[in-house]
Structures are given as structure tokens and as C-alpha cells.
């Protein structure tokens, strides 16, 4: 029944976005598939209401009216075109929880472009590799960009952003409850903030290519590409971003994401039902303030203007 199908469309689900596909086209495609699935189901029988309607009196030649008992359909329960119901509120709750996302970001050393992308307009070329031929090295060149240097820079970036996260959370870390939240990774900004990196590490280093894993919040694609550019500068070289891939969005991972062949009503209903307990538990944990946590007094912060500089380990202006 179509009404039963609608009843199972209250919640959140994840889909896999193929590279190059615009998010709006993805959303429209999913909506169209949902409508097709709902329209293909057998509509429910209209609910009947008893009404007293005027009609001619039987057996009488006079034009007299009497009340006749009959049944008419009510329009209240007819199918309507809906979204995913209460899931819209859950999306708002998910946004207010300031959950982190996880990315793999691939960089390419040796050049800089105007938009920090590999295929952008070339601005500069630099070296990253062999700078010396030393007998002690068997005649081989040495790299001035090394894994050790990259790891040190990533540690500085993470430390800078962790300090900023505490600042934007506006929590008094002198309390035991706030300290426990910090240890368990539950500290979140009180409002919208600049991009904050909660974790960053190198997964692969094979010059000129390197692969990073980044956990962050309030990010944009351009800020992640710029992060690669700034890392290149800190390495006394240049770098462009060749790939950005999101692997986790809050409590949804790639394992939860529906492939394009699964963008249909039964698959989406199943995904919503499977994720519902986890969504409720994670949102309750993330939105519930710790007992006894205290906010530091003070004026409001400029949430949208200033934040940690990604590569320098100091605070500065974030450019979008």
C-alpha cells in the first residue's frame, strides 16, 4: 500500500555520489525514483465517512426532500507527494550537532594553480625531489620534501586546530565534565565556525604524490584544496589537490551509502530503517550537554570570520 510506503520514509539515509555528478542532479534523481516507486504501489482504498444527504422521498410524487444515509470518500488519507518526512528535522539536528566528516585528500607536489586543483591554471612550478648528489649516498639524489617533514607539519596543523576547537566550544575546561568531553572527543563548536580539523595524517607518501586522511567540520571543498596548497608551501615547495573523497559524514560511512543502482523505493526504505536506531543514539549523544559543563562568560565570537590558519600553527584570517 502506498500509505505504508510513505510511513517508512521518515528518516535519514546516505547515497554514494559518483565523481562529477552535481549534488542537485543527484537529489532530483533520488526524488524521481521515490515518486516512481510510490506511484507504482496500489493506492489505499478511500476511507468512507457516513453523511446525511438530502434526496427525494421514495413513494411520493411530491418534490419533498428527506435525509438519506450514504457513504462518501474522505480526501484526508489520499497519497500526497512528500519528502522523507521527519528526516528533515533529523537533518537539522545533525547540522546542529556539528559532527565531523572524514576525507581522503590526494596531493601532487611540484606545481601551484589558481584554484588549487590539478587542472587549474598553472601559476608556478617548483622542485620537490633530488637536490644533491653525494658520494655518501652512493651517488643518489636526496629529497628535500620528506615524509618526516610532512608529518611534522601535519602535527602542527592538528595542534593549532585543536586549540581553536576548544576556543570555539566556549567550554571551561577546568571542570571535570568538560575535560572528560575533551578526552572522549565530544567537544563541538557552539555555533558555526571556520573549518576545524580534528585529525589529519599521511596515509601514503610517494613523491610527487601523497595521500592524507582528514577529519574536520564546517569545511568546504575549496578549503580542503587550499589546505594541500598551504602544506606545499610549508614544505618549501608547492602542491595541488588532485582528489577529494568524502568517506564519512557524521555517523554515515561508505558502507551505508546506496549505489546508483539502489536509488529505488525499497532500498531507500531499508536504508532508513537500518540507520534509524544508530541515528537516534548518535544524535542523542551529540546534542546532550554533559552534566555540569560550564560555558566561559564573554562576548560572542566572530564565528564566520576568523579561525586557525591551516598550515602555520597560528590563528589568522580564513579566506574562502
From TrEMBL:
What is any one GO biological process for this UniProt entry? RNA processing
GO MF, one example: RNA binding
Q: Where is the Pseudouridine synthase II N-terminal domain?
A: 80-221
The UniProt entry, under InterPro entries, shows: PsdUridine_synth_cat_dom_sf (IPR020103), PsdUridine_synth_N (IPR002501), Trub2 (IPR039048)
Stretches for region Disordered: 287-320
Query: Which parts of the chain span the membrane according to its record?
Result: none
What's one Pfam family the UniProt record gives for this protein? TruB_N
Q: Where is the composition biased (Low complexity)?
A: 288-302
The UniProt family comment states:
Belongs to the pseudouridine synthase TruB family.
Protein name stated in the entry = Mitochondrial mRNA pseudouridine synthase TRUB2
User: Which organism encodes this protein?
Assistant: Camelus dromedarius
Amino acid at each position: 500500500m502506498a500509505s505504508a510506503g510513505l510511513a517508512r520514509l521518515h528518516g535519514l539515509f546516505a547515497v554514494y555520489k559518483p565523481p562529477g555528478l552535481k549534488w542537485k542532479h543527484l537529489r532530483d534523481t533520488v526524488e524521481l525514483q521515490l515518486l516512481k516507486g510510490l506511484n507504482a504501489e496500489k493506492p489505499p482504498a478511500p476511507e468512507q465517512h457516513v453523511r446525511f444527504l438530502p434526496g427525494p422521498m421514495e413513494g411520493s410524487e411530491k418534490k419533498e426532500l428527506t435525509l438519506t444515509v450514504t457513504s462518501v470518500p474522505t480526501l484526508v488519507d489520499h497519497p500526497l507527494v512528500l519528502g522523507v518526512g521527519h528526516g528533515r528535522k533529523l537533518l537539522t539536528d545533525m547540522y546542529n550537532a556539528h559532527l565531523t566528516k572524514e576525507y581522503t585528500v590526494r596531493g601532487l607536489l611540484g606545481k601551484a594553480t589558481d584554484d588549487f586543483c590539478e587542472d587549474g591554471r598553472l601559476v608556478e612550478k617548483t622542485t620537490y625531489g633530488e637536490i644533491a648528489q653525494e658520494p655518501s649516498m652512493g651517488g643518489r639524489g636526496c629529497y628535500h620534501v620528506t615524509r618526516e617533514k610532512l608529518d611534522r607539519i601535519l602535527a602542527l596543523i592538528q595542534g593549532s586546530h585543536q586549540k581553536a576547537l576548544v576556543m570555539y566550544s566556549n567550554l571551561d575546561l577546568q571542570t571535570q565534565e568538560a575535560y572528560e568531553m575533551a578526552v572522549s572527543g565530544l567537544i563541538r563548536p557552539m555555533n558555526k565556525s571556520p573549518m576545524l580539523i580534528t585529525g589529519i595524517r599521511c596515509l601514503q607518501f610517494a613523491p610527487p604524490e601523497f595521500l592524507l586522511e582528514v577529519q574536520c567540520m564546517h569545511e568546504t571543498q575549496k578549503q580542503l584544496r587550499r589546505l594541500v596548497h598551504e602544506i606545499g608551501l610549508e614544505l618549501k615547495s608547492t602542491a595541488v589537490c588532485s582528489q577529494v573523497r568524502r568517506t564519512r559524514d557524521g555517523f554515515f560511512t561508505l558502507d551505508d551509502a546506496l549505489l546508483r543502482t539502489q536509488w529505488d523505493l525499497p532500498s531507500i526504505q531499508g536504508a532508513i530503517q537500518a540507520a534509524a536506531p544508530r541515528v537516534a543514539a548518535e544524535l542523542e549523544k551529540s546534542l546532550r550537554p554533559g552534566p555540569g559543563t560550564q560555558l566561559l562568560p564573554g562576548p560572542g565570537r566572530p564565528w564566520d570570520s576568523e579561525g586557525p590558519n591551516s598550515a602555520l600553527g597560528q590563528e589568522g584570517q580564513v579566506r574562502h
